[in-house]
Amino acid sequence: MSSQNLPTIAICVATYKRPAMLLNCIKAITKIEAPKEYIIIIVIVDNDKNESARHVFEAFDATKTDNIYYVVEPNRGIASARNRLLKEAIKHEAEYIGFIDDDEFPHSKWLISHLNTLNEYNADIVSGPVISTYETTPLKSIKINVKHATGHIPRHVAAGNVIFKDLLISKGALWFDTSYNFIGGEDFDFFNRATEMGFSKVWCSEAIIYETIPEERRTKKYLFYRHFTGAINNVVYYKTKKNTFLAWPHFLIKSFGKFVGGLFSFILFMFSQKKELLEKGIIKIASSLGYLCGLLNIIIERYR
Q1: Left (φ > 0), alpha (ψ -120 to 50) or beta: where does 16 sit?
Q2: Which structural domain range is residue 236 located in?
Q3: Are residues 210 and 253 part of one domain?
Q4: Cross-strand pairs, 14
Q5: 17 shares its domain with 49
Q6: Are residues 201 and 264 in contact, defined by beta-carbon separation less than 8 angstroms?
Q7: Residue 302 lies inside a defined structural domain of this protein
Q8: Is this prediction's pTM over 0.70?
Q9: Over 187-221, what HEC string results?
Q10: Among residues 56, 135, 248, 283, which is most buried (max CB within 10 A)?
Q11: Whether residue 231 sits in one domain with residue 204
Q12: Burial class (CB in 10 A: 0-12, 13-18, 19+), 299
């Protein structure tokens, strides 16, 4: 079979002012085990109009790396960048589209594991675990605690580690909702809508992605901020997709439960001094306050 008849997989990376992380990400992608029966291309969408990631692309172009493409999406926002990735993938006639974030890097068997699961379960969407690490290269010593086995149907699908068929766009006419551009949650919304349209999803525990946690994200302050804004997004999504009136009793109960649970974790921490209890308390209190802010329409645009 000639290469022209082989299906194309577009591995897509959106980036914004993180050239060092992007370089690490692209290096790792070029080293994964690639199945011979597919054409693999890499698509980079730079969401910085000043093209801060161009020199990363040019570094690979200079080494004559095949099938890597770079475009700039001047319209700021995470959903706008992801939509540009979809457009570029379709332009290159990709039958399968994979998403990975610029602060991540894949395990060498990441792609093969995704494809095996996609074919075994005849799925339209395959998602996998994202393992946090302080390193920039996959280490066998990293302890991997995967909650679900391959074949599990995930409740939500995130764009940090996913491969899906082009049918979601060509048949389902799905695009990322730009109202989520600066608050996040655009990926949950996109794949939830896909599921509602009948596209199937499945989990692959072997398709591992590593996320490098920079120094500024290792603080208790960032832990609070991340879960606080995430809780706000949950309320916004609920109001948009379900019912604004019903959101009040639903999230008031959740907020109260999280707050009580957080206080209990803090009390246990005072006696045990266990770090995980302190972090659990921070997460619960942050979520509790985030639910309240969401109900009051206090929105934090974390990606602006």
Answers
A1: beta
A2: 219-295
A3: no
A4: 45
A5: yes
A6: no
A7: no
A8: yes
A9: HHHHHHHHHHCCCCEEECCCCCEEEECCHHHCCHH
A10: 56
A11: no
A12: middle
* Adjacent-strand bridge partners of 290: none
Could you tell me what percentage of the chain is helix, strand and coil, using 3-state DSSP and rounding each to the nearest 5?
A: 45, 15, 40
Tell me the pLDDT of the chain (304 aa) as tens digits.
445 689 999 999 999 999 999 999 999 999 999 888 999 999 999 999 999 999 999 988 766 566 999 999 999 999 999 999 999 999 999 999 999 999 999 999 999 999 999 999 999 999 999 998 877 665 454 456 677 899 999 999 999 999 999 999 999 999 999 999 999 999 999 999 999 999 999 999 999 999 999 888 889 999 999 999 999 999 999 998 888 899 999 999 999 999 999 999 999 999 999 999 999 999 999 999 999 999 999 999 988 8
Return phi, psi of residue 106, to 5°: -90, 150
Q: Which of 194, 215, 236 is the last residue of a domain?
A: 215
User: Measuring CA to CA, which residue among 239, 251, 229 is closest to residue 183?
Assistant: 229
Residue for token pair 């605690």: 145
Q: Pick from 215, 241, 267: which residue ends a domain?
A: 215
CA quadruple 72, 43, 153, 112: dihedral, nearest 10: -170
| Unique residue bearing structure tokens 């299906």 | 7
Sorted by sequence, the CB contacts under 8 Å of residue 302 that are 6+ apart come out as: 182, 183, 184, 225, 229
- Residue pair 290/254 in contact by the 8 Å Cβ criterion: no
